[in-house]
Each structure stands twice: as C-alpha cells, then as structure tokens.
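Researcher: Let's run the pair from yesterday's discussion. Sequence first, then tokens, for each.
Model: Starting with the first of the pair.
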Amino acid sequence: MSGSEADLRIGPATDDAHPRVTVGRYSVFTRVNHWILALSFVLLALSGLALFHPSFFGLTVLFGGGQTTRWLHPMIGVVLLLAWIVMFVRYARFNLPENTDFAWLKGVRAVLRGDDDALPEVGRYNAGQKLVFWAFTLLVPGLFLTGLVIWDEYFYDWTSIPQKRVAVLAHALFAIGMITVWIVHAYAAIWVRGTIRAMTRGYVTGGWAFRHHRKWLRELVAGRRSRPSPRVG
C-alpha cells in the first residue's frame, strides 16, 4: 500500500492464499499517525487518572514515579494535539454532514442489528463515525487549552487561582468525555468485523466496503472506470 492517500484503489490482496478484491482505505502515514494518536491517548488516560485521585496513584509506576508523571503528562498532551491536527486537516472534509446521515441515525436499531440493507448507502464514513470525529474535534482542543491553564511549570503566572480551579474541573469533564467517546470508538471498531484491518493493513475487503460503505465503494469504482487506460506500445 502506497503512502499517498490518493492511492485508494481496487486490487487483489497479495497476502491471502486465494486472492480477493480489496479496497485501499488508509495510507501508511495515516495509520502511523492514528496509532500515535491512540497510544498518546492511552498514556494520557493512565497518567491523568494517576494525577486525578490518590486511589489511582499506583499508576505512576508505569511512568517512573509521581514527579515524572506530572512532567510527562502535559508533554504527551502536546503529541496528542499535533497528531489530531494532522488527522483533522486530512479528514474533516470527509466528515461533513449529509442528508443521509440523519436517515442513518434514525435507523440506529438496524445498525445495532447489523441490518445494513435497511440503511441508506453510506460514503466514506457513517453518521456514527462522524459524531466521534467531531466529538474528538471538540474534546482534544478542550483538554489542551484547559491543560495549559493548569500547566504550572510554564504557565503558572498566566492565570489566577480561581481560573485554575475552573480549568481543573473542565479538564476532568473533558477527560471523562474523551474516555467515553474512545471506548465507543474502540468497541465499534471491534464489533464491526474487518474494521481493524483498515488501520493495521491499510485495506478492507470488497465485501466489507460494499456492506458498510457502499456509496464510497461506488465512487471509487466510478473513478477507476473514468480513468484512461494506459497506452501499450
């Protein structure tokens, strides 16, 4: 799979005993950025819990102790923000709302049953995935900005004590929201069989694309057919 996002194409899988139609979904760059984002979040959640309440303080062992955890937590937050900015710039246009999104949400029972035939054809992302995307778009900057207010090592004099207290509360609420959305995102990726392959190998099967993102697949096929055939000789 090429590193360019423009390399979305249909072709045979080379790692199966019986070649089948596959659809390129994510480039190497996108997958690496995604896993940096995911790892950063997990480390932030663990270190954040360790700093949030004494009952979780034992988690600081994972980061080399309390002082190291306190120093490392905001640094990881910077990594998370940068990775999310990259993700946002590359994928915001694919997550803009469409009329079919509202119909998809109304048919959420069919989604839970796995009855995709009862749902409208979906483009690159369905309404649920778009909600997760925009939730992250709100929560990641929210976590970062409130984190700056309480990052006393560098920004202590920038705000007052009352402002820091409000920021601590807001930061905790943003973190709870982020953890909740992340759990939903991870569960959905596991629940919809074949989804994780997209972020580990970069492609999905043609059957998966036809079942879950039929409109997107049709657009890819139409684009492939519209390309001029290569000249021979």
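Model: Moving on to the second of the pair.
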Amino acid sequence: MTIRRSELAIPVAEFAAALLAQQEVIPRAEVTADQVAELFPGTAVVVYVIQDQGNPVWTAKATVGEIAVTDAMEFHEGPLGAVAENKTPQVFEGANLKREDYAHLDIRRTVVSLAYAPLLVTNTLVGAIELVNFEQTFPDSVLQQLNDVAELAAPAIAVALSYESERNTSLQSISRVTQMYDLEKVFNSNLDLDPLLDTIAAKFHEVLRTQAVNVWMVDGDAVRLVRRAGNDPTVELESIESPGDGVPGDVSDNGEPVLISDPEDPRLQKRNVGVRVQGKDGAIFSLLAAPLMDRESLVGVVEATNRLDGLPFDEDDQFLLANVCETASNALHNASLLQAERKVEILETLVKVSREITSTLDIGRVLQVIVNDTQAVLSYDRAAIALEERGSVQLKAVSGLPQINPSDPTIKLLKEMLEWASLSNEEIHVTQHGETIDVSREASRAKFSEYFAATGARAFYALPLDDDQGALGILSFESHDPDFMTRAHFEIVRVLAAQATVALRNASLYRDVPFISLLEPVLERKRRFLALEKSRRALILAGAVAAVLFLAFFPIPMRLDGDATVGPVRKAQFMSSMDGVVKSVYVREGDRVHPGTLLADLEDWDLRSALAAANAKYQTAVSEMNRALAANDGTEAGIQRVQTEYWAAELKRAQERLERTHLRSPLDGVVATPHVENFVGRHLSPSDSFLEVIDSTQSSVDLAIDELDAVLLQPGRPATVKLDAFPTRSFPGEVRIVSPISSLESDQKVFYARVLVSNPDSLIRSGMHGRAKVLAGWRPVGYVLFRRPAMWIYSKLWSWFGW
C-alpha cells in the first residue's frame, strides 16, 4: 500500500459541507468513514460513537473496507480503551497486538497496524476513528491527517447525537400522549361494567409492564378485589380489605396514592407472609397503588406489583398510574350511568311484563308473554315453560313459536331436558366456556355436553315454578353466550318467576270454572227445540243441513288483511370509514345515484401531506438503496431495501386512506336524507350516519297479520295493497318473506308479511300507510267465517281436557 504524503491537505470545505448535509449520527459517521478511506486508500475504517456518556460503550456506526464489527467493545478494554484513557491519537503495531485486542472485528486478513483518533468536543470523548492496515505500518504523518479529520467530525457527530436525543425524547412524549389517547378510546369504547373492568386491568398491566395489576372496587366500607391481570399469589380474587388491613384498604380510606420501593417495608412483609410460608414464587418487592375517583367520591383502587424489569417503582410510574386512573375513572363513571339507566329500563320492562301476565286469565296469553316479552329484560336465544299436568311435565310455550310441534326433534330434546330439570326442584345453571362445562356431577356434564352440541347453546338456566299449593311447572332460558346472565339478571328472573307462578295458578283455576256454565245454555236451547212442532223442527233441521252443506263445500277466496306500512326494498345508511370533516357534498335530497357515484369529499390536506411525506421517504430510501448497490455495499443495500419496502407499504396505505375521503354510493337509488348539503363542514366519525340511499324502483310493504292467521301465510301468495294516499287505486304485489317471529302491536301479537310491490313511477314512498290483503287460497265458506271462533273453542277445550 502507498501512504499519501503528509503534506496532503484535507478538503475541508467539501468535508464540512457533506457533514452539514446530514442530521443524524449514522450518515455523518459514514461521511467521516468515507473521507478517511479516501485519504488512506487500501485501509479499513470504523467510526465508533459513544451514545450514553453515563454508561459509555463503543458502538460502531460506520465501516469502510474489508471489515465488519461483530461484537460490542467494552469501553476500557483493548486499544480503544487506551484511546479512552489518553484521549490522544494512537498507533499500534500488529506484532504487539493479540487477536483478543481486536476480537470485535470480523476480518480475514492479517492486521499489520492499527491507528486511532479520538473524537473530542471540549475534552469530552464522543467517539473514535479506527484505521486498520493489512499491508504496512502507519507512518507518524497518518496521525496528523487522521486527527484533522477527527477535529472536524467530532462536533458534527456530537451535534447529531444531541439532535437524535432530542428527537427521541419528543418521540417518547408523543408516544406517551398517543398511548394515553388510545387508552381513553379503549376505555370509553365499552360501557358495560364487567368487560370494562377486564379492559382496565389488562391495559394497566400492559402500560405499566408489571407482574400483576389488581383492581379493587368499593364494597360498603371496604374494597373487594374484582379483577386481576397477571400473577399475584399474595391475595385471592374476591378478597375484601378494610382500612388497616392492607394498602388497598388504606388508600380507600384516605384517597392518597402509595409508592413502596423498599422490599423490607412492613406492609410488603405482611403481604408476602402467605407466599413465603407456602414456598411460592411471586413475593412483592415493590408496590404502587392509586385511587379511582368519580368526581369527589372514591369508587375503587388500582394496585400494581413488581416491575417486570426488576427495578422498584419510581415517581414517574406513580405519575403515569395517576393519569391512567383518571382516564379509567371517567370511563367507570360513564359505565355506572349506563348501568343505572339499564336498571331503570329493566325495572320498567319488568313492571310491564308483570302487568301483562296479571291482567289476563288466559293461560295461553300468559305463557306467550312470559317466554317472549321477557327478552326485553334478558338477552336469551330461547325461553320455554313446561307445566305439571296429571303427574307429567308438558311443554306449553317456546319463545318465537306460536304453536309447538311435538314431532320436532329440537322440541323433543327440550322437553326431555325440562323433564329432567324438574326432578331436582331446584335452580339449575350450567354454562360451557370452550370445552369446559361448569357442572359438578359427571353424569350431568355428559348430558349437557350432548345437549349443547345438539342445540348450539352454551348456557342453560332453569328454575321451578311452585307455590304453597305445590309444583306448577318449570321455566328455562338458553343462550349461545355462556355469560348472558349477570347477578342482577338472576334476581330479576326470580321475581319474574314468582309473578308468573301466581298468574299461571290463577289462570289454571279459572280454566276449570267455565265448564258447567257452558253446559247450561246448551241444555236450555235443547229443551226449547224439542218443544217445537215436528214439522217446524224438520224445516229447521233441513235448513240447518243446507246451511252446513253450504258452509262446508261452497268455496270462496280467503283473504288475510291487516295494516300495511311502506318501506324501501333496499336502503343503505352510508357512514364514513374514517374520521374527517366534510369538504364538499355533490348530491341533494331526491337525486338519483348509481353505484360508485361520488357523494361527498372529506378534508384531505393532512392525508395528502402524509402521502407526499411517505412518497418522499420512499424515494429517498430507493435512492439510498441504489447508491449502496452502486457502491457494492451489500449490508447497507439490504438495510435500505427493508426501508424501501417499509415506505412502499406506507405509501400504499397513505394512498388508500386518501381514497377513503371520497364517499361513494353503495347502490343504485335515490338520496333520502333531507338537507344533506348542510353537512359541509361537519365532522364525521366512523359511527356517524352521513346519508341514506334507497331503491325506489320497488317498494316493500310490511303487512301485519294476526298470529291466528299467520299459519296461512306462504311466500309467493298474491297480495293487493291500498294506501291512504291513493284511496281509489290498488297496487298488486307478492308475498316474499313471512316473519319467523311475532311482534306486539296494540296488545296483539302479529306476524309481518313482506309484500314486494312494483313502483316504476316512484308513486309509492316509504312511510305511507294503508291496508293490504293476501290471497290465502279458496276455502269453504264455513272455514272462512268460523275458523277463528273454532280455533278459540278448540284451544279452550284442549286447555280443559289436555288431550
């Protein structure tokens, strides 16, 4: 190798300009390494930087030549240690070096000489330049030129370190703010108290990075441990602590946060007694607790134990916990308001159901109200009632079924389960979570395993209906959600069961009374008929026979009628898929639109800025990758290729987000939202409805049919609709769908038939009312006229005799 002459000048201006063109440490280190390699061709160069002056370590930031740094170099070891100690340029001959002195270097050639120049700023060491020669030793002139480069590079790298430190600090602050914002969104996204408590425990555990987080809620004058995330063997769930019993009890008494960083603290020693006696792991060495305050009232305590990094909690952790507790308290306040509102709604519904079942002595009506209207109080998939009759259990009512088909396999299975449940005369509550069935007896577990597999249910709750006169029957609820019943639901269902028992007992007693009163008018009419003359009796009999034959065989069209309400066949509630402010609206109420029609635009300047930034980053990464490939630097090219792929993905994501600011119609129809143009300037959230588009070429008419006629409804039947707005015109249609469940309309159970009516002229509009008739076929006159009374009589006879 030929060493440059000592009088060769360093290109100061170009070198300084190249350093100033970069802001970060690695690019400036690379510029420095390239400059040294240019001064000393054939040598390998490494630029080291000390990032943390409090804990100094040699970190390689740039390399040039046939060399790579594989391991971190201890600060005071080897030749670099001598540079750190003397802070002066150093040259080491290869003959005086051992391989261990430069073990951090991955090289395949023999080292002849090493040269070092420290990077000093006001006598503070910020790094070093390492020069490796594989051919000959370095002359003394090398150190002077190397030191000239170091004098220019040192302040540049120091400034870059300061810049990166400030940037990282800003990023940490932004990350903390973002984290708090995300926590607030997560907490406020769920207003159900039980899931919210689970979320609070999990998020506290995630943010604080602790061994465990315990959530205690106020229970009278004490606090109860209701949720836990992580492992804390020192206290059991559902434990209760009063003031003086422990840290949570004390915090609930004085409302002051507690920070314990000393493992020998008496409070921790008391807490760890049980763990140490049993020889378990998980003793607490540091503890942090803060109150959950709702306005001025304490509602709970959050307790964190043992940081995962093994360090004790500090004041920063306490400050973070206090801030997160404030966010969680707001969410708990909202959840408590919702819970109180739901309790009021449940009580109102319970009163309504109670009024329904106690206002009638019709046992069928009572049964249907119990199994159907109870769904407003409890979210179940199926409810059923079975009554004791002549020593056996008979299934009487199933939710959603106006009539029970005994031959249905699911009905048979339900009847068998209710018969089995009635034998215990106790409440039965069985749930399945995953593959685990929560029941004590193995035989019961096998029975419910088969039952759940056949029905798809994951929860079964049954309670007996009995009073002082004995057992009356059994009431059951099923759901695919194993946790569909809470503690409040159990109490409400027990109250409902007591009221249902009274109503059913009264209806059963009343059912037996009318039998004698029905026979008396029949016998009286028989006596009057026998008292008539024979010829008159014959004439009456002939007329009766003729009337019977007419009623039995003469066919007439049977039509089912009911109130009709017009609605659109198809409609779409259009909502934005992202947060934003409406910039422009291109449609008005009544405009016809097609799929893909541009409805409105959201403000997109920030997204365009993000797109431009992502594109710039992508282009920069591509340029850096191409430069590395041109320089045959495989390592740097690989790094830049990863950066290129990352920014390509970010660029595509930014383009997709920008496209989502264009709100387009999902279907062909008419805009139905009034004053949609006034949405300009309004902020839209993903859950906010923007406008509604309906298909006006066809209209769907909801026809309410009494439940007694619902069995005659069949899809495909012709129908005729007469609307109040067009009293002289009839609109033909066809029944497309018959509702599988009933609805309560004016204290009457009805089933809805959806009639499809052609509307090419757009005369029929959503919301119009009228009457509609459905042709149910041709039936004898008697069937048409007396079907409903006959069904009523039959139901009465069936309820009396129960065949």
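Researcher: Give me one sentence on the second I can quote.
Model: Confidence is low (pLDDT under 50) at residues 1-9.
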